[in-house]
Each structure stands twice: as structure tokens, then as C-alpha cells.
Amino acid sequence: MPTLKANHRQVLAAKPIGGKKTRYRIAGVPGLWLYVSPSGVRTWYARYQIGSGKTRQERWFRIGDATSIPLAVATDKAKSVDVEVDVEDRDPHAERELRRADTMTVGQLFEEWHTRYAVPKLARAVTDETTFRCHIKPSFAKRKVRELTRLDIGRFRDEVAKKATPLTSNRVMVLLSRIFNWGLDEGMLEFNPAARLRKTGTRKPRERVLTHGNIVVFWNALAHMETMTGEHMARAEKGRMLSRSTRSILRLLLLTGQRRSEVAGALKSELELQGTEPVWTIPGSRTKNGLLHRVPLCPKAREEFARAVAAAPPKSPYVFASPEDPKAHVTPLAITRAMARLVGELGIPTVSPHDLRRTVGTEMARLGIPVHVRSLVLNHSPQSRGITEAVYNRYAYDKEKREALALWETALTALLAKPGPGDEAADGLIKAA
Question: Positive or negative, the Cα torsion across 94, 96, 99, 101?
């Protein structure tokens, strides 16, 4: 381990070695260490051990920020910790955690869970943060966790159901239970007060799909926007223009039937647009079921992706880069909001981006495509897919999936070619601007 002299100037000048977190021993001060993070944050720690032999455990007691705590103060604290351990047979770190757990609030527990577990490991971390901010933080975040009873949780559940909806209440309860279970595993709680509480609502499978007439109106409205001027972007009124990326994403949702987050977060490196059989390969890290998914691209889908790649910032890895930050992609939530605004102005019954995916599945069924092929196109996880097919056979059913998507694209092209109310409705939207 690297060592620093007991000199405050050297402490303040210490840097992470090789850009990685580094612990420095302080010469002449037993047990005192300086932790330097990759970003250069310096923190004092007292190191000690409890137990003996096979039961010996190492402990790190955080003293505080080295920029605000002088070396002399940190030295005194390290010596104090040594006395507590060696003379008084105490465990200062465990005692601090116990005191902290006694006073910890729901809000503080959420922050710990969100920072240490949700952000590094959960794809839904942003959604959970929104749920907490909207429904838990206003009236429940300051409650002390150790004082909560099942009756308290049940009353809060009913309160959320009354203010929002029963299904929202269910989501809040799932989040609270997840947080409490994590606190239980970390030794912060003795039990989960939200475990096995009755739910207030029952989720019903959604059945919304676009009719043929609505598909035509929707598609033609996006097409008309290609000829609109930038002035529409600045006017928050009916007929407002959607961005090029948003229009492209919405079209691809209807052409491929893939998930909103998968299309919005598409990487240029995932696309193979050249050759006779272009394909979009979505890695398992971006799919809901965790399995690599190959999406054959038919002519319209390939052309849509090709235009989007050509329009994307050259240095961005994303096909649909965020206008604020080329290193990020357009958010799925932005697509949902844009579609809600568009269908509202077009007079189409409320549908979401996921309903476009459901529409594709429904239309494929109408075309007589077998259920197992539809399932593979949509990347569902039917039990009939064995481990060999699902994991090792990367090219499973490419031919069948391409044929299914080609049938759907041909049917969509024929539908759009028919004379109908689609053009008039889209024209009305543009003229209203």
C-alpha cells in the first residue's frame, strides 16, 4: 500500500494512482488511512480489526472529508477508535450503523438503495425514482423506518390509491417492499413492514390497437411533417412539429414491432444495413428478457434506419442522439409524450408507443403468421424456446422472422396506398397550425 508522510500538504495533494481509487497509509499514525476516489475526493478512515483467528474481520470507520478535517483532528479520532476497540472491546462502525438505522427515514433509505443498488443494477432506476418523487416523498419520506408498522403502510397504500389510482398504489407498494427487503439484507431493518400486504387494484391486460383507418391517419401525419418548416417547432399549438428523430422512432415502432426503449436507444454498431439481408442485432443487455435479439430489416425499416444514421451526429454512438447531449439517446419518455400529443391532435383514441407494438402483433395474427413466429419477432420468452435456441442459436428463425416482417410491411404499404380519410385528417392538422 502507498504511504504518505504525516503532512497536511501531502494529504491535499494526494491523487488516485492510475485513475483508480487508492488507499494511502499515513506514516507514523497507526490505523489512519486516506481514501482518494477516482474523481479526487479525499476521505479519512480509521482501520481496525475485531475478533481473532477465523472470526477476525476488518472494519473501516469513516472519519470525514480530508479537505475540512485537519490531519491532527483525524489523528486524534483514529487513536480514539483504537482505544474503543482495544481497551473497551467495542465496534465503533457497527455502533454508528445501528444509531443511524434507528433514526433513518424512508427517504434516506430510498437514497441509499437507489445509489448503491438501483442505479448500478436496475434498468428501471429512473422510473423508480419518479415513483418515489411523485408518490412517496411528499408525505411519507420523513417517516422513521424503525417506527413503521404494517398498519401505517396499509393506510399509506389506501391514501395513494385514493389520491392517484389503485394500480399506482400497487406500484408504490412494490417499490417500498423492494426497498425494505434491501434494507433487511443490509442489516438496517429487522423485518419488512410492507411484505404481503393486500393490493388495492388488479391489472388487466391492455387491448388497445390502432384500426386500419387510424394507422393511415397516424402514418400520413408523420409524413406531412417532413414538409413542415422549423417555425412549427417554436409554436406550442396544435400542429406543432415533432422532431426528425421522434418521427423516425414512431415509424420504426410500427414497422418492426420492437419495444420503445430498444428503438430509442439503438446503437449504430447494432445495425447491418448493407447486403441483401440487413439486420438489427439488439444485445441481451438492452432487451427485456436479457436475450440477444436479431430483427431482420425489410426495405422500409432499412431505409428509415439509414436516414436516421445519416442525420445523426457523427461522433454519437446512438442512431437517435439526444439534442442536448450527443453521448445520450432520446429518452423513451419523450417518445411517449410526443405520441400522446400527436394522437390527441389527430383525434385518435388514446394509444401509447407500446400499443404500436401490440398493433403489429395483432396485424401479423390477421395475416395468418403462426403464434411462435410472432412471439419470436416480438422477442417474447415462450417456454417452448429451449436454452439452446434462446442462448446459443443466434440466428434462430431469421428466415421466418424476415418473412413475417415482410408480410406485415407489404400489408402496411398496401393499406397506406388505399384512398381514405388519412390525408384529409393529416392535412387538417397541418392547416390548423
Answer: negative
At 14, which amino acid appears?
A: A
CA-closest candidate to residue 93, choices 133, 144, 126, 58 = 58
Contact 311, 186 (CB under 8 A): no
What does each of the 433 residues of the chain score in pLDDT, given as a tens digit?
Answer: 799 999 988 999 999 998 888 999 999 999 999 999 888 889 999 999 988 888 888 888 989 999 999 999 999 999 999 999 988 889 888 788 777 778 899 999 999 899 888 888 887 888 899 999 999 999 999 999 989 999 999 999 999 999 998 989 999 999 999 999 998 887 788 889 999 898 887 766 566 899 999 999 999 999 988 776 555 545 544 555 789 999 999 999 999 999 999 999 999 999 999 999 999 999 988 888 888 999 999 999 999 999 999 999 999 999 999 998 888 999 998 999 999 999 988 888 888 999 999 999 999 999 999 999 999 999 986 554 554 555 555 556 899 999 999 999 999 999 999 876 555 555 544 444 4
Q: How many CB atoms lie within 10 A of CB 338?
A: 20
At position 222, the amino acid (one-letter code) is L
**Terminal-residue alpha carbon distance, the chain:** 68
Per-residue exposure over 72-105, b if at least 16 CB sit within 10 Å of its own CB, e if not: eebbebbeebbebbeeeeebbbeeeeeeebeebb
Distance, in Å, from the CA atom of 406 to the CA atom of 279, rounded to the nearest integer, reads 13
Domains of the chain: 3-89 (3.30.160.390), 104-185 (1.10.150.130), 212-431 (1.10.443.10)
Distance separating alpha carbons of residues 265 and 333, to the nearest angstrom: 12
Sequential DSSP letters for 310-372: HHS-TT-SBSSB-SS-TTSB--HHHHHHHHHHHHHHHTPPP--HHHHHHHHHHHHHHTT--HH
- Decide if 282 contacts 264 (C-beta within 8 A): no
Q: How many residues does the chain have?
A: 433
**C-alpha to C-alpha distance for 194 and 148, rounded to whole angstroms:** 9
Task: Tell me the three state secondary structure of residue 60.
Answer: strand
Say which residues have a Cβ less than 8 Å from residue 241's Cβ, sequence separation at least 6.
225, 228, 230, 232, 233
148 in Cβ contact with 105 (< 8 Å): no
CA distance 48 to 32: 9
Q: Quick one: which of 328, 278, 315 has its CA closest to 300?
A: 278
Residue 105 gets which letter from DSSP? B
Give dist(CA 373, CA 401) in Å, integer.
6
